[in-house]
Amino acid sequence: MPSSSARADVTRSAVLAFIGGSGPTSRADLARELDVSPALITQHTRQLIADGLLVELDHSPSSGGRPARLLGLVADAGRAIGVKVVADHITVVEVGIDGTVVRSATEPFDAASGTATTRLAERLRAFIGGGDGAPLLGVGVGVPGNVEEQAVGTVDSTQLGWQRVPLGEALRRELDLPVLVENNVNALAIAEALHGQARGHENVLVLTIGTGVGAGLVADGRVLLGRSGGAGEIGHVPVEEDGPLCQCGGHGCLEALVSQEALVHRAREQRVIGRDAGIAVLRSLADAGDCGAQQLFSHAGHLLGRVLAGVVNVLDPEIVIILGEGVESWRHWSFGFEPAFRAGLIPRNRAVPVAVETWQDDRWAQGAASLVLSTPFDDQGRSGEQGRLVRERLGVARSVAPGESGGAK
């Protein structure tokens, strides 16, 4: 069973996200839309008002009976920065207290450079300097790979070529702000739970396809991290015993068979595309009706469907959400995916819905920013010292003990 504090974390964040997206809302409407009891909504909104995040507004019109008081966001309560880091570019967003993206930027980035963390800090500093308005609460960073702890932020990533890179420490030192670091798909799952199609569901499987294959797992309203933060590595499920070498060092992993790099490699081998062509050319050929290109995507969909069916049978989610760069070719993936996926499900799971979302870098970075926005309700202590610093900036933490500083550490 999930802990009551974990449910509270999700519910209070969901209240902010819903009001931010829908405008001033009554408690009764919140309870109905979020499928939470009126008593719990009253409890959570009372605390959010005390924390300075919500404010009671005028009464809503009523056709009879006592008019309801509307709740609205305190617009200047705070903002957060989120950044998605991949091997060749970064996407940075600024979001309001409700998670709504205020502005964004995408820039080239060389993760393999010896000065990568310094350059990242420089670009974040420049982006932060272009904002104004509400106080800046902190920075959330999403990376492909394993992260020791959100509040520590030491990263191991084969995609970035990083081993034990102290990203969180470096950014905190350079920016003098609270910094939280998380696996990018786990961060994305948080954003989906608050702002996307996962909202209202407590058991969700978020799958990403593109440069890699990953999954974020939400169980009973909590993102599952596993022993070392690496839960959800569906891309490294073994599929072919003597298959191609994967970047993890194994052979025949799902990612080594269906990632964009794998599809391009196979397309070149089969002379579907030229030696210098990439995924965009392969997708264009499939869109134009080229049978060879379409078959490559369909076969990838078949493999993905078989593996995903097994994962769904194990985890029993309410909904599966698929997104990432690869969904731009989803109509070609789907020919192989749908029959393989449905055939692999046990009877009780055969009706599980699969939602395919349009890929946007902004959503990934929004997920990273959600790491910061969820810290005021982090009763589990996952955000550690950085969460305490965020709460101080928001003004909801207890008084700082003598000799302590409110700055980043």
UniProtKB/TrEMBL annotation:
Residues spanning the membrane: none
Superkingdom of this protein's organism: Bacteria
Annotated Pfam families: ROK
Family, similarity comment: Belongs to the ROK (NagC/XylR) family.
Protein known as: Xylose-responsive transcription regulator, ROK family
